[in-house]
Design a protein that fits this description.
Layout (H helix, E strand, L loop, with lengths): L3 E4 L5 E6 L5 E8 L13 H8 L10 H9 L4 E6 L4 E8 L3 H13 L5 H19 L2 H13 L13 H5 L3 H11 L5 E7 L3 H11 L22 E6 L4 E9 L8 H12 L5 H8 L4 E10 L4 E10 L3 H16 L7 H18 L3 H15 L5 H9 L3 H11 L5 E7 L5 H4 L4
Length: 423
């Protein structure tokens, strides 16, 4: 699978990936801005704007007009917001790709931002915030980042708070868009059964009005962590949810493939070490998995588990034993195990890239945030070059007690019982 990167006459970048046998195509608009660019007063603005783009545009003034336009050709549409990027997409059959361009460009470039709709949507977002508060499996990610990035813009929730959301006005949206929705900060990705030349013409036609301008940088996160940390969110649940994680490396770091293989070995599937040790052997959890997250200048490696509240201490000990034990060479990595981990990663990547939306994400996020793209073939080659000693070395570099963080949601009152487990 390959791609082409072109720059339109107004400076807007566009990535195309042609899949001749595909009957569908996805058009995605990426903006290199997210919640870490907001002030305390406007916390949640990026996510709020994502909602407002669907509430009416110049050609289609209401949310109903937009949804009907997309439903009329059986399209799929949605958006996402992170701490560093926002995206909007429409997926359609190939024959309706120009309509997808028309609708998506109008939504993103010409949102109405009706003050009445803004006020109504505040209620919707406050209910969304409440929903996540009542969903510990989802909320634990926020709690963990509140802890590991505390004291910085990175430590805020993407959705903001109910108070900050209620204070946002139309002028905040207008100012924010003027600063961030500019050519240097935007990227267009299109993949599927398309023709590159035709797509470039459509992009020139429908995205010619993007304002020219340079992107704005966010304040760098500087960790103040000097030892193990923990954060307890008290909540009466039948199950406890936790993330154990270590401060790690930035997006695109040089050891990312070693990290991916380490991730796979520890918690990448139902035959991974943590799944076997935590769930199969001891019955401590239904769900347990390892994952890493990366940002411009930092990141982390974490393990999530939803555990029996009466056995949470045991679960924490087992997870830490597996991480430290691997780094110290106590639990050896075998040639068979590293081969399985590599094939797990390559197989999941191949399956995910059968979807044009995921293809846009694969190429788009690399270009948007790194301005450097590796193809799936190049990724596979780099994964295959990783050796067992490389994985040990990476584990040793990251699994250090002074970098350890524990976030817990559950019906507990004593934080000290958990702190004692971290040393």
């Amino acid at each position: 699978m390959d791609y082409r990167l072109d720059t339109l006459s107004n400076g807007l970048r566009i990535i195309t990936s042609e899949l001749p046998n595909s009957e569908s195509a996805t058009v995605t608009v990426w903006v290199a801005v997210g919640s870490r660019f907001e002030s305390a007063k406007t916390s949640g603005l990026s996510h709020f704007l994502e909602h407002m783009v669907f509430k009416g545009s110049r050609k289609r003034p209401t949310a109903k007009d937009i949804s009907e336009a997309i439903d009329s050709f059986g399209g799929e549409f949605n958006a996402s917001t992170s701490k560093e990027w926002t995206n909007f997409y429409i997926k359609s059959r190939v024959g309706k790709i120009e309509t997808a361009f028309d609708v998506l460009s109008d939504m993103v470039l010409n949102p109405v931002l009706d003050p009445k709709e803004i006020e109504k949507e505040k209620g919707v977002i406050c209910e969304e915030i409440a929903m996540y508060e009542d969903t510990p499996m989802a909320k634990i990610d926020d709690i963990f980042e509140n802890l590991i990035f505390k004291g910085s813009l990175m430590g805020r929730d993407i959705a903001g708070t109910k108070e900050s959301v209620r204070g946002i006005t139309k002028s905040d949206f207008v100012s924010y868009r003027g600063s961030h929705y500019v050519t240097d900060n935007l990227l267009l990705t299109v993949s599927g059964g398309i023709n590159r030349e035709k797509i470039i013409k459509l992009a020139e036609k429908y995205f010619d009005k993007v304002a020219e301008g340079d992107s704005l940088s966010s304040k760098n996160f500087i960790s103040q962590q000097t030892g193990s940390q923990m954060l307890l969110r008290r909540k009466k649940n039948e199950q406890a949810h936790l993330i154990l994680g270590f401060l790690g490396n930035e997006r695109g770091h040089k050891k990312k493939y070693e990290e991916g293989i380490l991730n796979s070995i520890l918690g990448g599937g139902m035959s991974s070490r943590l799944f076997i040790e935590v769930r199969e052997k001891r019955g401590l959890a239904y769900a347990v998995k390892a994952a890493s997250e990366h940002y411009k200048e930092t990141g982390y490696f974490g393990v999530y588990a939803g555990v029996d509240i009466k056995r949470i201490d045991e679960a924490i000990k087992v997870i830490l034993d597996q991480m430290y034990g691997l780094a110290e060479g106590k639990y050896k990595i075998t040639p068979k195990e590293i081969t399985k981990a590599k094939e797990f990663i390559k197989g999941h990547m191949a399956l995910s890239l059968e979807d044009t939306k995921t293809i846009n994400g694969f190429f788009g996020l690399q270009e948007l945030l790194l301005k450097k793209v590796e193809t799936p073939k190049e990724v596979v080659e780099k994964i295959d070059r990783v050796k067992i000693d490389d994985v040990y070395e990476y584990a040793k570099s990251i699994f250090k007690a002074g970098r350890l963080n524990l976030a817990v949601i559950g019906p507990f009152d004593d934080e000290d019982r958990f702190r004692k487990l971290l040393y």
